[in-house]
Amino acid sequence: MMLYDTFSQYRHLTTNTVDECFMHCFEDCFCMSFQICQNTECHLMSSNQFQNESKLITAKGCSYYDMLPDLDKIRQINASGCKSVSSCRIHSNLCKNGGYYVEITPTDYTTPRYKCQCPAGYTGRLCQNATKSCHAYRNGPRLPGIYQVFDDDMKPFEVFCTFDSDMSWTLIQSYQLKNKYKFRKAFFEDAPMNEDTPRWDEYRLSKSRMQSIQDDSNKFRMTCKYDTVGIVYDDFLVAAKKDIDIMTYRTGACTLVDYISIRTHDCALCKAYFYQDTSNPFHIDSSKTHTGCDFSATDANGCGTNGPGEDNFGLYDCTNPAHQCSSSENATTQTWLGLAWS
């Protein structure tokens, strides 16, 4: 048998016995299994069958062996206050992009004997993945704040991240109501504002950066006053990218959302009417009803008999102080792109 995974085969040696190959694996922190082929070819591997049994296949002339930790011994040593069962070393650092390894004690048959400490902007077991959105930081402490990501040209920049119980969110736009005239561009237009310094009063990423983040996202949401009240599900919108792609949306139409709330009026898995074109930024007019739409908000502000209807989550030609995003000149509106935990 052999573990057929060329990525995990990181070191090839010539040995005379199985025991000799075993010792090479035992002494190497990256080694979790090994195989002997044609009696002398010793292949060290950084994964094992317990991590991915489907990759274990029959191969003539090869024998596969797991480097299994003595879990009972590990438990005894951990209970005594020791940090490691045995010392191992790295013959060649597999951590990519400037990462470095840290020896750890395995707790089961799938836990490696090392972890790669990755530099800012890289994730993955071997630091092999460039960070494209906040989703790459889901295995960290999940604290809201500034993180580094890379655009499609591998240029780093900072974004504000926040994390739910099952989603990561990357901020792409935020502005105060008094700055609304600076944010009259659709998301398919390039109109960056302070894009290198995430802030709440006037901030928007360039189109290319937003697109790079959206390629690593499957939902978007809009919030009000996150900078002062955090996430509140009144005056809140969330929808799937497959239903509303804000980077390409160019119409006024009834469109499916996961959830929408405006001034305590809400619905889930329903259709609401959105606008976005070359003359209008993405927004909803809650004072109007449309055939085929499920969502409507009563007591909306009409701003006069023939005036514009109440705007929510953008535009704000007609505002209502009962809507949190337009409750004062300093009230803010945020747009986020997010991805669910895999």
Give a written overview of the molecule.
The protein is mostly beta strands. The protein folds into three domains: 2-66, Hepatocyte Growth Factor; 71-123, no CATH class; 131-340, no CATH class. 9% of the residues lie in helices and 34% in strands. The chain has helices spanning 18-26, 71-79, 207-214, 226-229; strands at residues 2-3, 9-14, 33-37, 41-45, 56-57, 62-66, 100-103, 114-117, 122-123, 129-130, 145-150, 156-163, 167-176, 202-204, 219-224, 236-240, 251-262, 265-277, 280-285, 311-312, 332-340. Strands 11, 12, 13, 14, 15, 16, 17, 18, 19, 20 and 21 form an eleven-stranded antiparallel sheet that branches. Strands 2-4-3-6 form a four-stranded antiparallel sheet, covered by helices on one side. The protein has a two-stranded antiparallel sheet with strand order 1-5. Strand 17 (251-262) and strand 18 (265-277) form a beta hairpin. The longest helix has 9 residues, at 18-26. The chain is elongated and about 90 Å long.
Summarize the structure.
The protein has 342 residues and is mainly β. Strand 18 and strand 19 form a beta hairpin.
Number of E-type strands: 21
Radius of gyration: 27 Å
| First and last CA, distance | 31 Å
Provide the helix percentage: under 10%
Domains, number = 3
Order of helices and strands: EEHEEEEHEEEEEEEEHEHEEEEEE
Strand residue content: 25-35%
Shape: elongated
Largest sheet entry:
11 strands, antiparallel
Q: From the structure provided, what is the oligomeric state, counting identical versus distinct chains?
A: single chain
Structural class: mainly beta
Mean pLDDT over all positions = 87
Low-confidence stretches: none
Number of helices: 4
